[in-house]
Amino acid sequence: MLSIVDIDRGTPAVKSDKQVTLEIDGRSIRVPEGTSVMRAASQAGINIPKLCATDMLDAFGSCRLCLVEIEGRKGYPASCTTPVTEGMKVSTQTSKLADIRRGVMELYISDHPLDCLTCPANGHCELQDMAGVVGLREVRYGYDGENHVFAKTKEGDVNPHFAPKDESNPYFTFDPSKCIVCSRCVRACDEVQGTFALTIQGRGFESKVSASQDNAFLDSECVSCGACVQACPTATLSENTLIERGQAEHSIVTTCAYCGVGCSFRAEMKGEEIVRMVPNKDGHANHGHSCVKGRFAIGYATHPDRINTPMIRQKISDPWRIVSWDEAIAHVAGEFKRLQAKYGKFSIGGITSSRCTNEETYLVQKLVRAGFGNNNVDTCARVCHSPTGYGLKSTMGESAGTQDFDSIEYTDVVLVIGANPTDAHPVFGSQMKQRLRAGAKLIVIDPRRIDLVRTPHIKADYHLKLRPGTNVAMLNALAHVIVTEGLVDEDFVAARCEQLAFEKWRAFVAQENHSPEAMEAETGVPAAMIRGAARLYATGGNAAIYYGLGVTEHSQGSTAVMGIANLAMATGNIGREGVGVNPLRGQNNVQGSCDMGSFPHEFTGYRHVGDPVVRASFEAAWGVHLHDEPGLRIPNMFEAAIDGSFKGLYIEGEDIAQSDPNTQHVTAALEAMECVVVQDLFLNETAKFAHVFLPGCSFLEKDGTFINAERRISRVRKVMEPKNGYADWEVTQWLANAMGYPMNYQHPSEIMDEIARLTPTFHAVSFEKIDRLGSIQWPCNEEHPEGTPVMHVGEFVRGKGRFMLTEYVPTSEKVNATYPLILTTGRILSQYNVGAQTRRTANVMWHDEDRLEIHPHDAEERGISEDDWVGIESRAGQTVLRARISERMQPGVVYTTFHFPGSGANVITTENSDWATNCPEYKVTAVQVTRVNQPSEWQKRYQAFTQTQQALLDAAETS
Amino acid sequence: MNIERLVAMVNDIGRYFAAEPDEALGVAGIADHLKRFWEPGMRKQIVAHLAAGGEGLEPLAKKGVGRLAEIDGKLHA
């Protein structure tokens, strides 16, 4: 079922410079050439009856309901498949058309249940609407003949055409008895999602929708994106929440709080209850598509595990005490002031999160800088995309991706490195697949055979299956080919880049030790393949690089980002549509949390705290003296806590005890602190080490903005009241006031107004403008009043592009006899990061435990079979997971996801980090894997500790 | 803070700047990086470690920290 508020124009919008004028029912209308008659009519306010057409999908022309008459043409062409022509005269309502349509509807209804009053689609069923529109009054054929409606025939025999409901998917129900075989679900799966899981099986009256090889939906290839459910015109595919709750009565546009794609959704509501989430067709990032997380996995917001009252305790071995907000805030302020008095001004700090809105993040860093009087504030981008900020700022002058997602429509060569878009950024993954199916070439650089390498109708031209930790060697080898084979875009470089830096870089990468042949032993990739890929990237037309945490989370993460920027500059693939450098951000607001000045060394808009002019502007606005030196980064905070100089931490929306590397080191740091304050929805892993718990609220309960991977600022809108009583920004403001630093915002829009005043790249941003335009890509200021889809057009943000030298330095995390395998980590479609949200939804039906993926060869050597328990040991720690034997891995490399805390993936990862930003080297850990028959010592301790903490929570008492 | 960790971090930075053919630029790069991104307490600690012999610091990193000591000294003087 479509959104209750969307207008469906039947066929997709067409882009064309040429306009065509035609007449429909006497009305003149001008539309772009290539538009269908159906869409043109809709734009003229004339609704032609339809069933198989919807504007998310290409015209299909099967239902025969949208027939029209066109002057000078024979017969009754389908308006969905007929393009407009100049001067065309169309009649949409004639007595002949009425007869035909009624006849068509009569046939449909003769094989459709007449249970409209009790049907989930009642009120928004397109079949019901069309029956009304055509004036169907009787069905002459009766209902007794062959049908798909009833389980038994009239004679009481089993009806061979009948299929019972498929309720295997936890989120939607497939009821074949209501199916009109319009193929909209099948086409949505193909065209929108690109999974090709659905098909129409059989011919004629035997035709039916089938998932994979007539499997149950859950067992099929279906990825549960819900595009089919949205496309279905009847109740054949319906959300279970719609079946349970009935039709929504209002709809509010908001932004998804999962990955960095930042999909726009319509929350369809009944009062304060969400009936369903429908991706917004007008959403600039997602154009009406979504994934299983965004559309369906929102149940965590009302999960019983949520804690909605503040709690405090003296020691982490004490039971929690439920207290009032007043007492909790006074306690935190008292403790922080006590710590600063005893251990000094720099002994406390704050951590903000990509899960927070911009306004919340901004307030946390303001509280730290202005209220605490130090710069000890950091954000979780430290552990994911901090190298992107560093690398892109150094080379091009701005810490952000260069394009919008739609830019890929103009891309000829897609280079994906260290990213797995179909799992981690699924909606953009689908858009990328659409472009690849339309003919763009694909280069994948990844140690694992990610789905994109071979997926229906897509095959990578090159999969450079490199060894983990050799990205820089690979990028240098690609650059070597480009430079030595004369593939540099000399005109671009001469006009747009610093000449001296370029010459130095050219000489550097031209050295023989960077050639693909010389690097073959390091990367493990045949030189000829690297040469081929480099030639394709440099000469294949518009080439765009998409990268993720497989690039940044390395000891050379920043170097690799600079290497990527070098490649794009050298080939002139910057500054127009279809090209660019595109970091795929892991979380919804990674970009925003970085933009908001939550790194310890910089204010909003990436301006260093040491810059006296910038600092003065903040001092004037905030009315305090500000510290001019960088503060502690998250890993530095841990070190400082362990050595006793860092004692108090305010953490909003981040779960460092699970997400940060070397868990035992992190928990030792938390245990060494005297006041750990966690503001979150749940008693997460970090909160188990906390002294104060401040309940947070979900994205559904507050106003604000998120910024996605395209620098797109979108509104988060409150659809229900905060369950904890206060929006998170109000809690931070309260704490600031209690600390003695006054804040008095009445609404998050006032916070954005302040951000805009103080940040040159945000000068022209306001809630009012975002509401008006739908979304805005920064920079948005006097020069770009409506935002900037593509950056570095004509000139780099820093003026001239700067090539940086990128020496390959092998990681110190090397395999040896003790630890002969390399562990690398990643994400899976159905789960999200630490899993705090998705683990509390039915998404666990797809992934209920983290597994160790291991190549058959490595498994056989160790006597490991599928499902065996295996111990994974590194120099940091040991954990135990079940094995999954997989040829996606290369021999010597093992892989796991990290969505379940008990898996202890980060017990194994080390504190090795990116040289420039301390972003942890999650992607390379030397390990040994052995068959075991019991959990690791850490897991046993973790289990016991978790049980104790749960008991202390259950024992929480109201004082 | 754990000085071995700080030493390892400076060495990592040093290895990046080792690619710079003009060593003076590399040394300045290391010092500038530390100045811009390291919290003053950490800088003080690594400078003190250098003064005490700089055990574990690689040659270029050592020079970088030495240069940092000059910058920080000047500012704090």
TrEMBL record, chain A:
CDD domains linked to this entry: fer2, MopB_CT_Fdh-Nap-like, MopB_Formate-Dh-H
Residue ranges occupied by any 4Fe-4S His(Cys)3-ligated-type domain in the UniProt entry: 96-135
Residue stretches spanning the membrane: none
UniProt domain 2Fe-2S ferredoxin-type: residue ranges: 18-96
Domain 4Fe-4S ferredoxin-type: 170-201, 214-242
Cross-referenced Pfam families: Fer2_4, Fer4_7, Molybdop_Fe4S4, Molybdopterin, Molydop_binding, NADH-G_4Fe-4S_3
The entry's keywords: 2Fe-2S, 4Fe-4S, Iron, Iron-sulfur, Metal-binding, Oxidoreductase, Repeat
Oxidoreductase in keyword set: yes
InterPro entries: 2Fe-2S_ferredoxin-like_sf, 2Fe-2S_ferredoxin-type, 4Fe4S_Fe-S-bd, 4Fe4S_Fe_S_CS, Asp_de-COase-like_dom_sf, Formate_Dh-H_N, Formate_DH_asu, MoPterin_dinucl-bd_dom
Domain 4Fe-4S Mo/W bis-MGD-type: 249-305
NCBIfam families: Fdh-alpha
Family to which the UniProt record says this protein belongs: In the C-terminal section; belongs to the prokaryotic molybdopterin-containing oxidoreductase family. Belongs to the complex I 75 kDa subunit family.
Full protein name: Formate dehydrogenase subunit alpha
Species the sequence originates in: Dyella nitratireducens
Automatic annotation (TrEMBL), chain B:
InterPro entries: Formate_DH_dsu
Pfam families according to UniProt: FdsD
Name by which UniProt lists this protein: Formate dehydrogenase delta subunit
